[in-house]
User: Fold these one by one.
Assistant:
Number 1:
Amino acid sequence: MPDDRRATVLIADDHPLFREALQRVVAEVFTDFRFREVDTWDSAVAAIDEQDVEIVFLDLSMPGMDGFNGLVALRNAAPSVPIIVVSASQDMATVHDSITYGASGFIPKSLAKDELVAAVRQVLEGEIFTPSIATGRGERPINPADAKLAESIAQLTHQQRIVLQMLVSGQPNKQIAYELDIVESTVKAHVSAILRKLKVHSRTQAVIKAGKILALLGDLKGNKAS
C-alpha cells in the first residue's frame, strides 16, 4: 500500500500512554496521516461513521466493548477497514477468538516498537497478523504443534474461517453456498485455499485438524470458567 496519501487512523484505547505509543508506530508506516483517538466503544463507532478511516486499533478491554460483541459490531460497521486488536493478554483462545470475530490482526501490548511496525505493515498488505507465541488460559501448557495449528487457522481470511466452521459442522458445499449467499464454485475455491493454508490434501483432514484446535480452545475456556 502506498505511504504517500493521507490516512485517518483510529486508535480506540482507554490508556493514554499506549495511544501515544501507537502514534509513534503509525508514524513509521504512514508519511501523511491524521489521528482520531477515542477511549470508549461508543466513540469508536461514532468516529467510523463520521470519517473515512484507514485502519483501526482496538483495545478489547475498553469501556463499552462488551467482550467480542464490540469487535463484531465495529467489523459490521466498517467491513472493509482492517481492525487490529491490541491487548495486554496474548493467550491462544483470545487470539483465536479475535481473528474469528473479524480482526485482521492481534497485537500484544508487550511487543517492541519494531515488531509493532512490522505487524501493522503486514496487516496493511492484506495478511493476518498473530503473535508467534500465545499462552494458554489457566495453568495448562499449550503443545507447540497445537499452537502452530492455531496460527495456521488464524491465517485464513474471515470468509474462509466461516466456511471452515461450516465444514466442521458437516455442511456440504451446496448448503454452505446457500447460507452464505454465494455460488458453489466460490465455496470450492475457499475450500481449496483452506486445504492449502492448513497443509492438508482433503476436506476430511481439514475438518479433523480444525476440530482438534476448536476442541482445545473449548477446553481452555472451560478451564477458565472452572
Note: The chain has two domains: 7-124, 144-225.
Number 2:
Amino acid sequence: MPKRKTTFSCGADVTSSVIGGKWKLQILYKLMTKTIRFNEFRRLIPEITQRMLTLQLRELEEDGIVHREVYAQIPPKVEYCLTELGETLIPLIEVMCTWGYENEETIAENRKNIAKEPI
C-alpha cells in the first residue's frame, strides 16, 4: 500500500486528507448513528466495490476515526463504529449535509449550464 502523507499545509489539508475521496464521507455518514457490519455497508452503498470499501475503512481505522471489531466466530463477524475522535467529525458532516441539501438544485443547474456551453 502506498505511504500516506503525514505533513500538511493547513488544518483543512488534514481534514480533507482524512475524509476526502468519493466514499469516506458516505461511510462516515452511515456510521453516525450506528455500528455497521462489513456486508451491511455493501448493501447501504451498493456502488462501492469490496476492495475500495476495505481500503477506505482501513484508512479510516489507521487515522483513528473508525474502530474495527472482529468477533471470533464462524462465519467471521466484523463490525465498524466511530471512535471518540471520529464522533468529533459528526458536526462537520452535518453542516456539509445541510449545505448540500440547501444548494443541490443550484449546483445541478450550474453543472447543466456548463454542459450546454460550446467548447
Note: The chain has a mean pLDDT of 91.
Number 3:
Amino acid sequence: MMPMAGSSVAVALCLGPMLVAAAYDLISFRIPNVLPLASTLFFPLAVLAGGATDGTLAGHLIGGACGLAIGITAFACGALGGGDAKLFAALALWGGIGQLLPLLVVISVQGGLLTVFLVMARNWNLGLVATRLGLALPIFERTAPIPYGVAIAGGALWLVGQPNWL
C-alpha cells in the first residue's frame, strides 16, 4: 500500500498530462507528443514515491506494452488518432495489466457517450449557435473528429480512484 504522500504525488503525475492532453484534443484535435511522453516518464517517479514492488512493476510494464499494441492496432484501423494511441499506452502503463481490461471498458463507454453527444450536438447545429454567440467551437463542426483523448483522460480519472491502482 502506498503512503498517502506518495499517493498524492502519483495522482498528480498521472492526471496532469492526461488532463492537459484532453484540453489540447478538445481545442485542436491533436495531442502533443510531449504529453504521453511526460506521462510515461513520470511513472518511475510515482513508483519511487509510492514504493511499488518488482512484481507490481513488471505488471505495469506488461500493461504498458499491451496498451501500446492495442493503441497501434486501433490507429492502424483508423479507430484512434496517433496521439490517442500513445496517450492510451501511457495510461495502460499506469494501470498495469490488472487494470487493462477495466480501463478499456471505461474508456470505451466514455468515448461512446462522448461520440453520441457530439453527433447529436452537431446535428442540432450547436456550432452555428456558438458562432452566432461569438464563440469559435470547432468541436461542433459536422466534419470534426471525435477528441478521444477526452475519454482517455476520463479513464485516468477512473483509474486513480481505484484502490491500489499503482
Note: The two ends are 9 Å apart (CA to CA).
